[in-house]
Batch of 3 targets.
Target 1
Amino acid sequence: MSTAPRHEIEIVDLKVAFKKFLALKGVSFYAGKKEFLGVVGSSGAGKTTVLRVLTGQISPTGGKAFVGGYDVTKKRKLISLLVGYVPQLEHLSLYYEFSALQNAQFFGRCFGMRPKEIEERARSILTILGFDEDLMTKKVERLSGGERKRVSICLGMVHNPPVLLLDEPTTGLDAHLRHETLNYLKMLNHELGTTMVIISHDLEVVDYCTRVCLLEEGQVSQFGTPAELISTLPGKGESIRLVLSRMSSAVLDKVVTLKSVKYWAKAGRNAVKLFVDEPREQMLAIIKSLNEMKIPFEEISLVEADFFDYFQVKPWKSKTEGDSQS
Ligand SMILES: Nc1ncnc2c1ncn2[C@@H]1O[C@H](COP(=O)(O)OP(=O)(O)OP(=O)(O)O)[C@@H](O)[C@H]1O
Ligand SMILES: [Mg+2]
């Protein structure tokens, strides 16, 4: 079978072993040009290992990885031009005693760029990233955490790569800065057309993604657009939100064991989201059952399901696992 790559990034049955330990057990996914792909998974799932293969830092034990149609193991030099990399810990890439623009000069020179070219490129990226003259010329040690992240993003892009790989660019930032950083990345993606692969264990990244790859213990458990994944839930993206007058485990137990309820998720204080087939049609029957069981409730409404629900409910696991929500 031919494995000619059709996408900007294509990973086919990738395996990576560290001695006897198989960190990646046959991972396949892809990202088209200009996509914003999120690779989500818990610690140790193999996320950084995938990026290390894509940047040519390690060779896979099996399978293939392509960027721009080129095999990453065969075209190392070219791949370093095609791929920008923002590492998990930005202090590994930044010179703190120099400014953002000076840091860019160091990086750009590694790619054989001329000083003037680097200056222009860095200024245009930093401008999209919300930097003014003062921030561009201030020592990195005097910048805030969020600003430092943005400098490290700029360094990853200074040589104008069509693909940017980011390892946990939002880790360690507060919620406001996480969204700010993601918004800036989205702007770069939009204005410069850069294909982004962003690793995270923060689920909020999914709101920004065109496609999501969920890694679990070295395997892809889910891959698709956020809407595709959510539509696999009963209700196909719609759920019933129920606010109870009083929440107790006995009451909750009665509600979630109603016959039509396939899954449920917590939805705030005293509230649950119920996932049923045909939620519009089921709503009346559920109200009737609640009344019969004399369970008082304050509100019941049809709401959209989101990725947080999808992740709580884990419909890709077996029914028993997906149901054992504590
Ligand atoms: N050089 C190495 N030698 C041995 N084992 C390694 C090596 N690098 C990674 N591993 C193991 O491979 C697994 C995947 O590691 P990886 O760094 O890809 O995880 P991750 O998903 O990025 O986790 P995190 O969210 O904590 O960064 C882990 O169990 C890790 O201990
Ligand atoms: Mg990692």
Note: Residues 144 and 150 are 10 Å apart (CA to CA).
Target 2
Amino acid sequence: MPLTVEIDPHSGFCGGVTRAIEKAESLLAARPGMHLYSLGAIVHNEAELERLSAKGLVTIGRDEFDAMGDSSGKTLLIRAHGEPPATYAEAASKSFEIADCTCPVVLRLQERIREAWARLRENGGQLLIFGKIGHAEVLGLLGQTDGGAVIVENGEMLEELIGNGGIDLGRPAEFFSQTTKSSEEYAALCAGLRSRMAAFRGMTPEEFDASGLLRVHDSICAQVSSRHERLRAFAAAHDVILFVSGRSSSNGKVLYDLCRSVNARTCHISSPDGIRPEWFRDGDRVGVCGATSTPKWLLERVADAVKFATVPANS
Ligand code: SF4
């Protein structure tokens, strides 16, 4: 029996990435020959980056940006992840024009973090962010607190920080999450901190909640969290899942793990070239899906390649 293949209708770029790419393309089309520099990859997907680079978008790293001198006549694109205030100051000092493509959801989160930081400085509290150390969005969020927020990557790190005093159970705290993290992991971290803080003060969970000493903010992007449930169902409904994402996509890692948790035959690829015939058995229903940074056209190419895949004779 031949393979059947279906593309997850909810996979593909999120609104923030779509908006940034459209803005870059419209700038390049309107001003041919312009010098448009993206500070960091506009999307964590090598194939899409190649497509945009052919249109004239130049991706530069932080070191390259720091080394640049007077940049009059050049435009710096701030990608959907956002940047800390120091980047805007540095760009202005070099006379860059700025094309700010920070996702509105991230901009709002930066604002909420600035407000919380101001509150916490008054009551001696601490601000925690669940996110990946060094991730561009996290650096932008951290910059709203002058580097004063504590980044927590996972439960192990939370315990470590409590142990070494990086998190003080006796002080008020506010907790935020990077927009692309898993809601379940964030809920588990918040619950862990809540019980540790309540125990430290000898309070019941109810007394502790009433005290307002820990404020948890729902800051995971709705486009990401709604995708999780749908993706779980999609992965469970197919025999094999081909998960397509760039190697450095943080959201890609989260969603790949999620697919794998419900379907052990989940395979990660970044392009159709990565497909291996031995992954398939006769008559398999193959599902193709990806991260918020995976373009639809790439999912379509993968699906087309599956249609022509030859299943090994002994399967
Ligand atoms: S995942 Fe959500 S918050 Fe992040 S860029 Fe996309 S739309 Fe914006």
Note: The pocket of iron/sulfur cluster is lined by residues 14-17, 80, 103, 105-106, 179-180, 221, 223-224, 292 (CB under 6 Å).
Target 3
Amino acid sequence: MTSDVTVNIRDQTPALEHQSFLVYRRFLHLKLATLLIGVATVAYVMHAPMGGPSGSTWLGYTLGTIAALIIVWLTWFGWRKRSYGTARIPLAGWLSAHVYFGLSLVFLATLHTGFQLGWNVHTLSYALMILVIASGLFGVFAYARYPRLITANRLGASQIQMLGQIASIDGEIRQAILGMNDAVVKLVAPATESDAIGGSVWRQLSARYLDCPTAAALRGIQAAARGLSQDQQIATRKILILLTRKAELLHRARRDIQYKGLMQIWLYVHVPMTFALLAALATHIIAVFFYW
Ligand code: HEM
Ligand code: HEM
């Protein structure tokens, strides 16, 4: 299991305390970004360069420069947000600008290219930009959706408490199988020895554990109890109740890990792809000046 599972979700998502960042100052940044897109679109429609619109016309250069400056500015956000608290402008304001101007890039960069995309280094920067923007969109969705689900799923317990409860149920199950016949012990003991929880990134994010020993024990326990004495049947019922409680706790603990994982995973695309984008963009700009 990963050690970061105990980290308070609020620590990782300052944006959560500002769910209002999308409506910050009555959509100020949405309005500004829309204005920018509007001006760029009007200029693009009115502009009739010889040879058709492309990145190498004066408008192409202007839009490309604006888009590149916005990208550098958005990257700066990463450093900027680390000085949260000392800021004159609250974090919500920066995030709102980041999101709306980030989205405006889809329009600005596309108009810059004059809709001329191809299999080349120029289009690589375009594709990386789209990847960064798409991951950012998922981030906004994740920040809006998962905090509520995490709180509802935890039922007031922390993750450490859930794991503690699972460990104490394991102890009770171990007690309950003492004196049971071999078939029951063989079936139930593995459920107390390993908890199918955590593991690979895929398992954490999918929260699917088809090899869960607790689920296997639950499935087999009733069949194994057939033909047992009445005392043993009563003991088996107790084991069944304990296994059911454990399965429910495991389900909640896995969901907790899944939700927290989904709230972070997109940053593993957003941030590295930002740096790949900056490198591709620098190559694009150098290439166009080199061949000018
Ligand atoms: C300072 C900023 C920029 C400058 C000076 C610039 C310059 C240019 C020029 C001169 C062209 C025309 C190349 C040609 O016709 O062969 C071009 C095309 C293009 N640019 Fe930019 N650009 C800039 C920013 C950007 C940005 C931010 C993106 C997207 C992330 C981008 C993506 C493209 C694409 C996809 C093309 C079309 C390539 C093709 O024709 O296949 N550029 N750019
Ligand atoms: C090309 C455009 C973009 C670039 C270069 C960019 C870059 C960045 C960088 C470097 C960070 C800091 C991450 C960190 O260090 O934790 C960040 C954060 C963030 N980005 Fe973007 N971004 C872009 C577009 C977008 C878009 C379009 C959205 C949403 C629709 C978005 C949503 C976010 C969010 C929500 C965060 C805050 C993460 C946090 O505080 O935990 N980004 N972005």
Note: The CA atoms of residues 100 and 270 lie 16 Å apart.
